[in-house]
Amino acid sequence: MRLLVTKFGGTSVGSAAAIRALATITAQNRAAWDGVVVVVSALSGVTDSLLRIVRTAQSGDAVGVHELYTALRLRHDSTIDELLTTERAAVRKDVDGLLDECAKLCEGVRVLGELTLRTLDAITGLGERMSARIVAATLREHGIAASAYDATDLIVTDDRYQDASPLMPETIERTTGLLGPVLAAGSTPVITGFIGATLAGVKTTLGRGGSDWSAAILGAALEASEVWIYTDVDGVLTADPRTVPDARVIPTLSYNEVSELAYFGAKVLHPKTIRPVVERGIALRVKNTFNPTHSGTLIVQQTERIVGAIKAVTSVHSLSLITVMGRGMLGVPGIAARTFAAIARQNASILMISQASSEQSICCVIPAGTTANVVASLRQELAAELERRDIDTISVDDNVAIITAVGAGMRGTSGVAKRVFGVVGDAEINVIAIAQGSSECAISLVVSEADARAAVRAIHTLTHTETISAHHRAPCE
Ligand code: ADP
Ligand code: ASP
Ligand code: MG
To answer: What is the pTM of this model?
Structure first.
């Protein structure tokens, strides 16, 4: 069976008009494919609203909870009223039931003044459970055989609440067992993105923006031919369109390139989306719900080389650069390991590492929120070296951003770094640190937050989307 898994993000289900567009697209996809699966996010802004309600409940503010809850109910009710006629009452009842669940959980949080990650997952996952029911009913009212499923019955995860990962063998078993017959009967399952459940059935979420990952997990479990991520832009662009308004669509990217882009801040695709599909060679496409005839961006194993080698530029913000420096570090084994272990103990993720041996320093970039704890942990771990002056300083540069230029053709193309530093230098931007991964698919620069936009725009002038002439043509990963 040639199966297509489609995922529609928050804006793609954010209004009645968007959900109607989803229905038209799904009817067309069903005509072209043997089977179609639809994965949905919550209506745009709903996950944020649920988080706000929980926090308000935790602060004990019953009136605030009521106001936010009422707004959420109105938003869903008006969408249902605009979309549905025959199924209106039934879907309203379902959605009301889920909102009641939200109210009960929030009341518990308010009374206890305590919020566990497990409760947080149960509440924040409600948005997808509501949207899946609304979307499935809309498809049926458009004459499309469809039914809603909660991924809590399909995606089995570990119990890292807020950041759960799938257990693939169990997920494959549940998914094929439950959805196989549905697809064979020609029906389209509409599945909640973002959520799963542990083996014991406790609800979990896969992390913010995780619905893309849900689609990839389900695509892998069902051995889909392709996974298409429908969003609100024409595909993966040469830069974030909010920073660079004239950013262009990139027709093809390799899994490696898109991994770097996603990891270094291109919100269009959750970074964990790539692994389940790359392992199985499933093609991934990013498309626009509001311009569905555009072919979007195709992500495959290998793409053709492009002119100039740089395909896109991204940025990650709100970071700190930590530098451990000292002459006594030279040649002393184990300092790097202890530095990273001390950082890991604070659960801080390191986005980038660079070591300059001539200056005898190690620097790494971490999210700003974790800086104070990380520095305290480093001072403790390296206390003896600081005392002996083997290490002179542990310094912090707050308010930095990482700017990353991506393109697989960098490998084997000389002078790419020179051009990147050239345009950044011409823009009079000071580069604080640099790193190039061994994949040679990306060059990252650390600059101060104040220079970040200008750096993105400067490097964007170097991006190309056209492939180089046939006689040079060689595929790249
Ligand atoms: P969805 O709700 O469909 O998952 P997201 O808001 O998560 O959508 O991701 C799409 C958004 O990502 C776009 O609207 C765009 O503003 C942003 N974005 C950032 N970088 C890029 C990029 N390089 N290409 C495309 N979109 C990008
Ligand atoms: N609704 C979830 C979020 O806002 C998941 C997603 O949209 O991908 O994070
Ligand atoms: Mg998203």
So the answer is: 0.94
